[in-house]
Structure prediction request, 227 residues.
Amino acid sequence: MNNKKQIEIDSNVAKLLVDITHELRTPLIGVLGFTELLTKEVSDKLNDNQKEYLKSIESCGRFQLNIINNLIELLKCTFNHFKMNIEQVVMEDLIDSFISFAEHDLKLDRQKIIKDISPEVEFIHVDINKFKLIVVNLLSTFLKKEMKGELKFNAIKDEKDFILKITYSCIDCNEKMVDFDNLENSSEDSYITLSLTKKLVELHEGKINFSKNDCNCFCEIRIPGRD
Prediction:
């Protein structure tokens, strides 16, 4: 592909990103902000049904905003419109941030969230924001809010590779198997989220796998070590 054609493609992608942000994301953020304001300022004047309507608007709005954000990031990944910022991160701090998300955003019981970090996995080299997005997307896709089973984060080292294995109850999770090499059969929103997740793992030169047995579902993220 010649430089002129590449510049034209980059220009079109940049315009598309701006259009998506302006036409979809910006108004939605406004709606969510107004909903939050209503909830805080006039909550005592609303009846139970009206409060539920506001909760529904906020929940649906945040769901749609997440899809839009993932679509924008997927376009950036696909057309190389961002740079990786690899840095050394404390593994325990990283997992604690995932636990906080599971507890506060997914409303999971903190007593049923377990972390098991091998002593040899003190640090991992990742783009911290993009790696967090990988795990948050996985948790948001596969876990139902207020699930009853256990959620476990297990960090180990396999030769030079770092492995983060996320284990969760089959009873409370989405039981459908996920083939990251064939995402076309996923629902539209899951396709965007999982495609982005896979792309972000690949940008770390890593691999991601999903498996299950009768009792548990497993998601394994393998990231190569760096000297």
